[in-house]
Amino acid sequence: MVLYNLAFYFFSLITLASASVVVFSKNIVHSAFALLFTFFGVAGLYVLMMADFLAITQILIYIGGIMVLILFGVMLTNRTIDVQIRTGSIQTFPAMLIVAALAGTLVGIFWSTDWKISPTAIGFEKTAPEIGKMLLTNYLLPFEIASIVLLVALIGAAMIARREKKA
Amino acid sequence: MIELLKSFLGDSLFVYLIAAALPMLFILPYALVAVLLEMKMAAHIQDRLAYMYTGWHGVLQPVADILKLLQKENTVPHVADKFLFALAPYLIFIGTYAGFAAIPFSSAYIGSNIDLGVFYIVAVSSLVVIGIIMAGWASNNKWSLFGAMRSAAQIVSYEVPTALALVVAVMITGSLNLQDIAKFQAGGIQNWLVFGGPLPLLQKILIMPFTFITFIILFLAGIAEVNRTPFDLAEAESELVQGYNTEYSGMKFAIFYLAEYANMFLVSAIVVTLFLGGWASPFGNALSGPLWGFFWFVAKGMFFIFVQIWIRWTLPRLRVDQLMYTSWKVMTPFLFVCIFAIGLILVL
After folding, report:
1. Rounded to whole angstroms, how far apart are CA atoms B342 and B67?
2. What CATH number has the domain bearing residue A21?
3. Domain ranges of chain B
4. Per-residue pLDDT tens over the stretch B185-198
5. Nearest CA to CA, how far is B127 from chain A (Å)?
6. What domain range includes position A154?
7. pTM (two decimals)
8. Which of residues 113-142 of A touch B (CB under 8 A)?
């Protein structure tokens, strides 16, 4: 259990430290790379909650897909590298209101939720077959709709990228 | 393996650290052998002798190279992003090394016997892409950035055929656990998935051409993922100097090199585990056991290292458009046909 706690604090530290770099760094590329470690830390926390499938999906989708996309976006967009992103404070009052509302909601949810805490480690169960069965029985329609949305997005992206210029 | 260590040392952090360090004990000597093999094979393919003076027929040359690299000055370009520049080689190596955690080296040793091994390896290898982009960008050099962009685009494209080829193996074995997949193919060369696996005879004959095509595509996509000829556009010497690692020197360059060779073995290990029985002996129950398993696994892995080097020094490099054509218009449709056909045969 000591090891478990150690791992938990390790991943929490990675997540929080890198997330603060994402927010406070003045260099947008540094922020983008720090986001990588945030995703990785969150994946580690998923593993500690015995959600192995979710953790690996997190790494595959967010680090392998979305991070690469963000980095390409940041690096290939004109002049973003030269522009200094300033982290100053403007519109302090509305921002404080929104932050207070959001923080209040989160704390409220945190206190009112009935957390299911197991006194001992449960250990890994085979999650992948169960998730597969659920996706092809109870959640078939949302699953198919998600695939159709992705397919449409893919075709749309190809259409826009391949549009030939009229001579 | 971890249970064995626990019985000696108790349940402490050291057990996990030792278990995590074991693949390193394999990678370091393997890299020395692979570097020597690469140089010697390149020379013999080109009808020359390569190193002949350091030791018998130059076998000590990799050791001399390492000593040289250790002494080299560690130069960092003045305009480079110092922190990311230093971090990138380690990130690439971590991405590769993490993959070794789920590779079953023998029936008795696997770093982490997780149920989602195949899926895990596909996921963690994406860290390598981020490392390459980081190295290219932090160097603040046109060639490095171009090389990194090409490399990232290439790896992301070739992840599609790789993942589809893995699906074929998972469909037949019904498991994502690499240890289970290797066990499934035990019992002789005729049970390997490349020859149809241990299915009833009719199914086996019908399925064999499709598994064979999948095996070839998985290996080729693997070569593309490690950026080696004929897919080495990322470090096309004639156009880009050396690609994303142009500005690196000394130990940091050595780590790139180590990561590349480790990645070559990882790719071979995946191909071997999924389609060639992993640690299973080709002679059924003869010459099998945990230690023989390790021997067969390394022997099969080294054979594919040999093939990768052989291909590298005999084939020319593809153009960018040919590279993308191969991935999207040849490998991917072929694999869809294979998945469909194998699914149909398995259901009937």
Report:
1. 51
2. 1.20.120.1200
3. 79-347
4. 887 777 888 887 77
5. 7
6. 2-86+122-162
7. 0.85
8. 124, 126-128
